[in-house]
């Protein structure tokens, strides 16, 4: 798919991500906490540790404005996942109520709070690898020390321990973090939260499980999305559907596409069926959306049919322009009505 197609296709999805942030001023650009990619942050940062803040001191550079904080946090380190730091580690940080809106200086360390920190050394001192996602709040609970496992396994064990935290906010944060690790080995723990957690915990555990590639939660996703996808949880789940790539998910995704009223759900389900799964059983459902009232859905259906059928009637020319889309959709609809619908797609 060329860059022009990508930009057209994901315009709606980008708008939906911004909508996710609209309910919280600090989240206008920064990734919401439940969507942070913990694994990517961990793999890119040369130093990763967890611990709690024991002291905050000014670094002598604080400006007079009360909205800005420039300080040094002292951490008592509980666990080192990557790299080397001392048992007590100092880390400069900045927090700004206004810049946090723009994706900078988002982390406000405070005494007696627990964090996983992604850091690097620069000119002989430690600094955050990212000024907005370089520190993530976590539960204070630690899992067992794993002597013969890798650092990702250890991090996962510590996050799983947080699911038993007495504080509901810490349990929810632990669910977010497991989703951000995206490890299949977390699924059993997440399913326990789906079954035993409260309504909020169960919903976010479904989302976290989906981030691990667990398509067994799709029937529950269908139930959650039947009333729309405007709330943060439902929007996050709907957006995640575009990444479903497990062949066994086809039937459930078709059911979600047919029942969910939300535009975001429809778009991401069409993308998954038409691009990721490559299963001809999706062709009739894609063809039905050539007549959708939403132009993004019509385009996604057209592009999916191109991928699955390789029909010229459903294929835009290489240097297509936006005004070429609707005439091509009409050609594809004609092909479907005259030829395509008479073929046996379910047996291929």
Task: Give a concise summary.
By secondary structure, this protein is α+β, with helices and mostly antiparallel strands. It has 14 helices and 6 strands. The chain folds into 2 domains: 3-26 and 213-347, Alpha Horseshoe (Leucine-rich Repeat Variant); 27-185, Beta Barrel (OB fold (Dihydrolipoamide Acetyltransferase, E2P)), CATH 2.40.50.
CATH architecture annotation of the largest domain: Alpha Horseshoe
Contiguous uncertain segments of 5+ residues: 14-28
Class by alpha and beta content:
alpha+beta
Tally the structural domains: 2
Q: Could you give the order of the helices and strands?
A: HHHEEEEEEHHHHHHHHHHH
Tell me the overall shape: elongated
Indicate the proportion of strand residues: 5-15%
- Overall mean confidence score, pLDDT: 89
CATH uppermost class of the largest domain:
Mainly Alpha
Sheet with the most strands?
A: 6 strands, antiparallel
User: N- to C-terminal separation?
Assistant: 24 Å
**DSSP helix count?**
14
Overall strand count: 6
Radius of gyration over C-alpha positions, nearest whole angstrom: 23 Å
Task: Kindly list the characteristics that best describe this protein.
single chain, 348 residues, alpha+beta, OB fold (Dihydrolipoamide Acetyltransferase, E2P), 2 domains, 14 helices
Can you describe this structure?
By secondary structure, the protein is α+β, with helices and mostly antiparallel strands. It folds into two domains: 159 residues, Leucine-rich Repeat Variant (Alpha Horseshoe), CATH 1.25.10; 159 residues, Beta Barrel (OB fold (Dihydrolipoamide Acetyltransferase, E2P)). Helix content is 43%, strand content 15%. The chain contains 14 helices and six strands. Strands 1, 2, 3, 4, 5 and 6 form a six-stranded antiparallel beta sheet that branches. Strand 4 and strand 5 form a beta hairpin. The longest helix is centred in the C-terminal third of the chain and has 15 residues. The protein is elongated, with a radius of gyration of 23 Å. It starts with a helix and ends in a 10-residue tail after the last helix. About 4% of the residues have low confidence.
